[in-house]
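Wed. Picked up where I left off yesterday with Pyruvate dehydrogenase E1 component subunit alpha. The coffee machine is broken again, so keeping this brief.
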Amino acid sequence: MAKAPARIPAAEPPIPNRERPSEPKPFEATKEQLLQFYKDMLLIRRFEEKAGQLYGLGLIGGFCHLYIGQEAVAVGLQSALDGDKDSVITGYRDHGHMLAYGIDPKVIMAELTGRAAGISRGKGGSMHMFSTEHKFYGGHGIVGAQVSLGAGLAFKHKYAGDGGVTLAYFGDGAANQGQVYEAFNMAELWKLPIIFVIENNQYAMGTSVNRASSEDQLYRRGESFRIPGIQVDGMDVLASRGAAETALEWVRAGKGPIILEMKTYRYRGHSMSDPAKYRSRDEVQAVRDKSDPIEHVKKLLEAQGVTEADLKPIEQDIRRVVNEAADFAENAPEPNPQELYTDVLVESY
Ligand SMILES: Cc1ncc(C[n+]2csc(CCOP(=O)(O)OP(=O)(O)O)c2C)c(N)n1
Ligand SMILES: [Mg+2]
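Structure written out below (tokens, as returned):
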């Protein structure tokens, strides 16, 4: 029989001295990079506005969660990834993450309208889009499930020794889900290469983060698991990109997981069927006026000599791309009924 230890070891001090990631710095973008951020975020904004219209016309069925207001998070973080190695997984608010990869808006919009040409062959819809080609593993409707699946993706990166890192996005509401903490524990224990990204948009459906979370500083949620966390201005694409670089450096050095709490805000309701009665219009307007991520980059561009007239053709071009995507999504054929029987059983990807 194993002998009991002679003495229970002394407890460590409440906050042990641990190595911490360095303070992230805002990304220093060239004019070209700033313009690219502007275009990428504007494309998401206009795409989502159009998706909202198509939903209103009855062309999109099921749930539809828009990403308007949160554009700087996906664009800033994903711009730092290595597209050949790194993987991404998120929840149901996923259109922006796909667009940030540069995936053709046509196949994303066609997925929303349930057409065979959609990126998940019209069978996933708004919440269940995948692109294994881009190492984008969904699109998940079960709140928090993507976090444990993300830990699995990170396990695969480590097991295969492929040098990849997983970016697993989840919301402030999902941060109270039990399986998130099981994933945290295993991820730190096995030093998995994963960045847990909490998109704190202040609300989980109609419940504000302060009403639902005893610790509302969500970047601290990894403390009991020895996972460091950083709080980031998620309305600032340069801060987002800078934080991604710090996090990637930590994870790629084999130090295990890290948490990024991205403070952001969604302008629209939780989904298209939410009348948003739990907050005032003034609250939303105040954020738009003060912290809009696209206006922010526009100001930075203006400071570099880019004028309203220079930006106009960009806006027109984006509107054209989005309108073409909408036309395509409206006119493309629906899947053949036989497709009900494909992609059902496990296959290798
Ligand atoms: C396990 C589970 N519980 C409840 C729901 C219903 N539900 C859908 S979204 C949501 C709120 C999640 O909020 P948050 O994580 O903050 O993400 P956000 O919608 O703000 O992006 C809830 C409770 C669900 N889909 N899955
Ligand atoms: Mg939320």
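Quick read: The chain has eleven helices and seven strands.
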